Amino acid sequence: MLVVLALAVYAGALVQGLVGLGLGLLGAPVTALVAPGLMPDVLLWLVLALPLVSLVRDHDDVHWRGLAWTVPARLPGIALGVVAVALFSDDALGVSVALMVLAASALTWRSVRVPLRRTTLVAAGVVSGFTGTTTSVGGPPVAILYQHREPTQIRSTLAVYFVLGGALSIGGLALGGQLQVVSAVVAVLLAAPTVLGLLTARLLRDRVPASRVRPAVLGVCAASALVLLVSSLL
What we know:
This protein is mostly helical. It has one domain (2-233). It contains 11 helices and no strands. The longest helix is centred in the C-terminal third of the chain and has 25 residues, at 151-175. The chain is globular and about 40 Å long. It starts with a helix and ends with a helix. It is found in: Cell membrane. The chain crosses the membrane at residues 33-55, 67-86, 92-109, 158-175, 181-204, 216-233.
C-alpha cells in the first residue's frame, strides 16, 4: 500500500511543481482505492506540507490581495464540507465535486473568462473550502480563476493558498472529530517521495513554455475531476 501511495504522490507532486496543482489528481483517487480509510486526511496533510517546500524558492510573486479574500471565504466552505462528510457518502460527494469541476473547466476553456475580482475570489474560496474538505481536491476552483496569470504567480499564490487552506480544513475536521492520527503518520512516511517529486519538477520547469501553463492548469483540473468521477462511480 505504501509503495503504491508513494508512487502516486511522487507523480502528483511532480505535476504540482510544474503547474501549481496536481497532488490531489493522482493522490486522492489512488488513496481512495487502496486505503479509503485514510481519506481525506492524509492528502490534506501532504497538501499542507508540500507548498511550504516550494515557497522556499517561489515566494516573490504571491498575489496577496487575492488571498486576502479567498482564504477567509474558505471557512464557510469548510463548515459545509464537515457537515457533508458526516451526512453523505464519499461516492456521492466525489461525483458532485467532479461534475462541478468538469463544468467549470469546460466553460472557461474557451468561452468564459472569469474576472479576478472580489466576488469571484470569495466564491472560489467557498467552493474550494467545500471540495477540499470533502475530497481533498480543493485546488481547481482557485486555479481556474488564476489560469490567465503568469506561471510563477499561479504556482506561488496556489502554494500559499494550499498551506493556509489545508490548515483550515484539517482544523475543521479535527473539530468535527473526523481526523485520524494514523493519517498523519502515513503522511510523514510519504513526505520523502512528495519532496522528490517537487525537486524533479524544478529540474524540468525551465523546459515548460509559459504558453503551455494555462492549458496544463485546465487539463489538470479536468483530469482530476474525471479520475474522481470514475473512482466514485466504481
